[in-house]
Amino acid sequence: xxxxxxxxxxxxxxxxxxALVKRGATVxxxxxxxxxxxxxxxxxxAHDPHYAFERGDICDRAAMDVVLxxxxxxxxxxxxxxxxxxxxxxxxxxxxxxxISGTYHLLEAARQYWAGLATPARAAFRFVHVSTxxxxxxxxxxxxxxxxxxxxxSSPYSASKAASDHLAQAWHRTYGLPVMLSNCSNNxxxxxxxxxxxxxxxxxxxxxxxxxxxxxxSNVRDWLHVEDHAAGLIAIVERGRPGExxxxxxxxxxxxxxxxxxxxxxxxxxxxxxxxxRKLITFVTDxxxxxxxxxxxxxxxxxxLGWKPSRHFEAGLEQTVQWYLENRAWWEPVQARVxxxxxxxxxxxxx
Length: 351
Hints:
Blueprint: E1 2-6, H1 11-22, E2 26-31, E3 51-55, H2 61-71, E4 75-78, H3 85-90, H4 93-115, H5 119-124, E5 126-132, H6 156-175, E6 179-184, E7 186-188, H7 197-206, E8 211-214, E9 220-225, H8 226-239, E10 245-248, E11 253-255, H9 256-270, E12 281-284, H10 299-305, H11 313-326, H12 328-337
Parallel strand pairs: 1-2, 1-4, 2-3, 4-5, 5-6, 6-10, 7-9, 8-12
Antiparallel strand pairs: 9-11
Helix pairs in contact: 1-8, 2-4, 4-6, 7-9, 9-11
């Protein structure tokens, strides 16, 4: 199996690259290396004969044509995206360019490549478009997201992903391109860029800085370990049905406040401080359009793909805390040169 992974230097993408190579696949990683990408995440693969890196932008159709022709993949796993809701609130343009236009250009490149394959390779080819549960909008206190849940995106980020989902489905229905979609809940684990809740909280707690919690901390997310997600994406490539969508969730609903509190407890045990880190928790103005609750029903992935999450959230979270403690060389340069933990996504007051 030769898989072209877009966005492979990102958080989820790097986990997918590692998992594919470990499985014996050949991986071609195409990444633009934007602010959230980190080549250090792939250092152990750099000299592996089953891994190749091509720096490229999915919005560059000609470059995508060249990569596909050069490597002749049997599958495309499309993860390249702008993904941070807060950044989408104050800087929407990159989300429209990458998530919508980039997906269009990649779909067209894949369609031309696929159409030119010999019959056996054409029948085996797969295109997996990786998306988010945020396209479904906000749940009330009850219920779960299913594959047929109507779309109600709330943020510019989720709206851009919803648009790209529709494009991917349309390329299957109109052109027959063997596309499959995945929608996942919040990922966590090692090598996550520190603008997201869990790594941001870990690093701020280590520095004894205030730990910001939006609103009253009651917003609920379903947490999925990134390595479990990577296993699900590989299962789609191997066993998914073209034209279908698969939801992946960790069956681990937690409030944001509970997540922050558990990180504090884990750090207090692993790296004791002068005072309990829960005292650093600070409630701040909520994010505009903040969805109250997400929760995934992953029954279809269990039934059709034989997939299920393997990690209990609290144990996986403590392993994640331990990883950040042991890998300062990964995150210190990011913190010093790229993102220092400042608040993002605040709207300018109306004039």
